[in-house]
Description:
The chain is globular. The protein contains 22 helices and no strands. It is an all-alpha fold.
Amino acid sequence: MSGNSETKVRPVGQEEPADADTKRKRQDVAPWAVGAIIAAVIIMIAASLLRSSWMPPTLPMPHIGPPWEIAQKLSPRYLVLAVWFSGALGGAGVLAALWALRRGESLPIRTLVLTGLLALVILTVLPPVGSTDSLDYAVYGHIAALGHSPYVMVPAQYKALTHARGVPGGWEHIPSVYGPLATLEQLVAAKLSGPSLARTVFWLKVVNAFAFAGVAYAADRLLRSDKAARARAHVLWTANPLLLWNLVAAGHIDLVAAAVGVAGLLIADRWVAGPPLRRALLAGLCVGAAIDLKANYALFLLALCWAFRRNIRELLLAVAGSLLVLVPSYAASGMAAIKAPVTRAANVTGYGFYGFYGPFLHHLGLSLKYAAFVAAVLLIPVAWLTITRLPAGLPAGGSGGSSPLANTAGPREGQAVRAALALGLTWLLLWPDQFAWYSVIIICVLVFYPATRIDWLAIAWLTALTIADMPGRGLHPTARLGSLPHVLQIQFLQHLAPLVMLVTAVALVVWCINGHWRAGATGPGGNMPLAAPTESSS
Length: 538
C-alpha cells in the first residue's frame, strides 16, 4: 500500500513486506556505510599522528607546532596493515553509501559534513603521510627562496647546499614539474616557515584545506534544493576517506588546481550569475590558474572550448582569460619551466594496465616503451566517443533559478562540467602514468553531475590505486615491513590494481557504446532523468 489514496495492484508473485522489521533490514546499508567511512578516517588520522614510526624520510618537527605528531615508536608492520585496511574500508564505505542512495535511503548529511571537516582540520595540522610529494614542494619553495630556479636546481643540490633534513630521495635529481603559480605558492610557504620543511608543508596544507572546503561549500549550496544530490556530493567529496588521505593528508597540489579549475567550469555553465562574456573571461582566468598550478588541467580548457564552441566570442574570451594567466607567468619563469614538465611527460613511469607493471602490452608481446604511444593513439577516439555519448543534464540542484548563485537564464545543460568529466575520465583511465590523487580531476566535477555508473567506476579505480600507492613512496617494505606485507603490496601493485584499471577503461567504452549508464537512471534526487546527448549538448 502506497502512502497516497490510490491502491496499487501488485504483480503476481510479488509479496507485500511482512512488517516494519523487513523494511528496517532493507535500509541497514546507510548506517554501515557511514560507520565504515568514520572508522577509515579515524585510522588515517591515527597513522598520521604516528608518522615517524613508519613513513620516511625522517622529518624534524618544529619546536612549537603545527605540525604535530606523537613521537611514540610503534611497529611499522602493524601500522601499514592498518593503513591498507583503512583504504579498503574507506572505499567500501563510499560505495555502500552510494548504493544506499541508489536504494532511496537517507544519509545523515550533517554527520558526513562534520566528519569530513573535522578530519580536514586534524589532517591539516599533522605531518604529511602517504606520499613525499609535499616535501618536494617544500624543497622547491626553499630553492626559490634562496634565489634559485626550482626548474634548474634539483633537491639534491639544495640538500648539499643547506644540509637540510627531510629531503625525500625519490625526486632528488628531478626539477620541479609544476607551474609558476605553484612555485609562487611554495615560495610564500617557505618564506612563512623559515628553514623547517615540516612547517612549509603545513602552510601548503592550509591552502589545500581551504580549497577542499571551498568545493564542499559550493556543492552544499548549489545542490541544497535536492537532499539526495547534496548527500551524494558529500559522500563523493567532503567525507570521502580516499580523497582525505590522498589530497589532504598527503598534501598534493592537485587539490588546489582542481578547486580553482572546477570554479571556472561552474562559472561557464552559468551556476554563477553574470553577463555571458564576463563569465567566459572569468572562467578562462580560473582554468588558466589551474593549468598554471599543474599542466594536466589543460583538459579543463579543452572542456571550456567544447562548451563555448557555438559562440566564438565566448570561446575567444575563455582562451584569452587563460592566456592572461599563463603567458606572463611562464615568460617570467623562462623556458626551463616548460621543459621540465614536457620531459617528465615524455618519460612515462606509471604502472597503468599497459604501463610499468601492467599486463596488457606484455601479453601482446610489445615492449613497455610503447605504452605512451599506444595510449596517445587510444586517447583521441575514446575521448570523442566519451564526450559525444556521455549523458547530458545537470543535477536538480543546479537548474536555473533554483539557487541564489545561479543565473536566472538557466545553465547551458552543464556542458563544461560534462566535457571536463568526459576528457578527465579518458585521460585518467587510458594514460599509463597515473596515481590515486590524480583522480581529483574527475571527482571534483562528478559531484556536480547526475548519479550514473561513473560513480562506481571512479570509486573502484580510486580505491584500487589508493591501496596500491599505500603505504607511500619511499618506504622499503622488505626492510621495514616483513615478507608477507611486502608480497601483498607487490601483488596488489603489479596485478590487482592494473586489472581494475583495465576493467574500468573497458567499462567506460562499453557504456559509451550501449548507453547503459544506469538502468532506469534518474538524477541524484530522483526527479530528473538522464538524457542522451542532444545536438545542443554534444
